[in-house]
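Lab notebook, bench 4. The sequencing result for the construct came back, and we need a structural model before the next group meeting so we can plan mutations. Quick request posted to the team channel:

Model the 3D structure of this chain.
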Amino acid sequence: MEIGFYSIIPKRLRARGAWVSLTIFVKALLNFVGIAALLPLLYLILDSNNIASNKFLSHLYNACGMESYNNFVIVVAVAVLLFIVVKNLVNIALYRVERDYIYTLYRQLSRRLFTNYFSQGLQFVKSKNSAVLSRNINVVCYTFVTGVLRPMATLASEVILLVMLFVSVAIYSPMGAMLALLVFVPAALLYYVLMRYRLDRYGDKENEAQRRKYRDVIETFRGYADIEINNAFPHQLSRFDRELDTIVEVGRKSATISMLPQNFTEIGLVVGMVLLLVLGTLLESGDMKILFGIFAIAGLRLLPSARNIMSAWSALRYNRYTVKTLQEAYAVAEGVAEQSEERLPFEESIELRNLSFSFDGDEHDTLHNLSLNIRKGEKVGINGESGAGKTTLLNILLGLYKPTEGGVYIDGQQLDNRLRRRWQNSIGYVSQSTFLSDSTILSNIALGCEEQDVDMAHIERCIEAASLSEFVASLPKGIYTRIGECGALISGGERQRIGIARALYKKADILFFDEATSSLDNNTEQMINGAIERLSSSNKDLTIVVVAHRDSSLGYCDRIITLEKQN
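Done. Here's the predicted structure in C-alpha cell form:
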C-alpha cells in the first residue's frame, strides 16, 4: 500500500522522526532479547540434564561458581525476571518518546491546517463547507496520527521482531522455521486478500458519512428558527439517522474485521503446535520436545506480533483517506500570514484604478473597469441593486479579495500582500451580521486582545460613542456579561452597536459599514445612523464608507456612488 505521508509531516519534525524510528528498532530488539532470555528457563524446565549437555548453561553454571542445581535455577530465574522488568521499563520510556512525537505532530498538523485554511482568504472560505473544514482540522489530523502513523510504527516494530524471531528459529531448526512459514503466511495472505478492498471502502464510506452528519448538525443548530417554524426538523433528523445508520453499519463490519487477526493467528499457532506434537510422537525424537517448547515460546510472542501486524495493516487501510485529505489540503499554496501590529498611515485618499473582479469559475466580471477616489474625511455611500457588487467592492477595499485587474491604492501605494496586514490594522468594519463570539461584551469589543491588556478607559469612551452606555449599565455584570453564541442573548441593534464600539476601539482611520442597519427596524436604524453621524461630526478626519440599500441609511453621506449590475 502506497502512503505518501512524508510531504505532510512538517520539515522540523522529520529529523525527529528519524530518532523515533530508531526507538522502534530498539524496542523490537529488546522484545527479541526478552524472548531469548526465556530459553534458559525452558531448557531447565524440560530437562534438568541440560546443564551438563548444553555448553552455554554448563559454562554459565561454572562461571557462577554454583554448588547446587537448585541454587543455579533460582539465580537464573531471578536474573531473567529482573531483565524482563528492566526491558519493560525501557520499553515504556521508548514508547513515551514515540507517543510524544505522535501528539506533537498532531498539534502541528492541526494548527498548520487551521492557519493554512485561514490564509487562503475569504473567497476560499466562502467556497468551502465550514463543517468539512472544521472536521479536517479537528478530526482528520487526529485520525491521521493515531490511525496511520501509530499503526505504521507498530507495523515496523512487529515486522522487525518477526524477522528476528524467524531467523533465530531458522538457525536453530530449519524445519521449525518452515513450519512457521507454512502456518502463518497462508493465514496472513488469506486475510490480506479477503480484507484489502473492504477496508478501503469502509474507511471512505465512514468518512463521508461523518462529514455529512457533522454538516447536518451544524446546519440544524445554525438555522434553528427557520427549521422549527417550517417543521423541518423531522427531515433533518431523517438525514441524520441515515448517516448514523451508515456509520453504525460500517462500524459493525470493521469491528468484526478487527477480531479476525486474533482468530487467524491463534488457529495458526495451534495448528503448528499440533503438527510438532504429531511429528514428535511419530519420530520419537527427544529433540522435538525442545523444538516444541521453542515454538511455543516463539509462538506466544509470535501470536500477538502477527495479530498486531494485521491489525495495524487494517488500521492503515481503513484510515488511508486521511492521507489523501491532508495532501489535498496542503497542496494549496500556504499563505504567509504577516503578524504585524504596525498601521498603514492614511493621509490623502483611497483610489481605485480600472478595477475589475470576477469570482473563480465565473465568466462575467462582478465589477468591471471601476475607478473612483475617496478622500480622507469623506463620508461616501455606495448603493445599487442586488448583484451589483456592493459587498464585493467593500471586500476589495478591506483587502479580503484581490482584484482580477487594476488595483487599490492607499496614498499612492498599491494595496498588496505586503501592505494588507498594515492596512487592516488601520480600518474598522461593521457588517450586516456582526461577528460576535460566545463571550463577554468586553471581549467582543476588544476582539483579539487578552483581558489584562485591554485599555479600560478607552473601552468606556467607545461604549459611550456607540450609544451603548445605557444598555451596559442595565446589565448586572455590565461589560462582563456573556452575550451567547453569535450574540443570541442581545438584540440586533445592540449587536451592531458592539460592532461600532469594536471598530472605534481600534482607533481606526476609516470605518466601513456593510448593510450595517439593513436588518434593523426604522427606529433602531435611525439610532445607529445617528451614532455614526455623531462620530463623523466629532472627528472630521474620520473617513466613512457605507454600503446600503436604503437611501435613509445614506442621508448623512457627502456623496453616493451607485453601482450598476454587470451583464
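The two ends are 52 Å apart (CA to CA).
Will bring this to the meeting.
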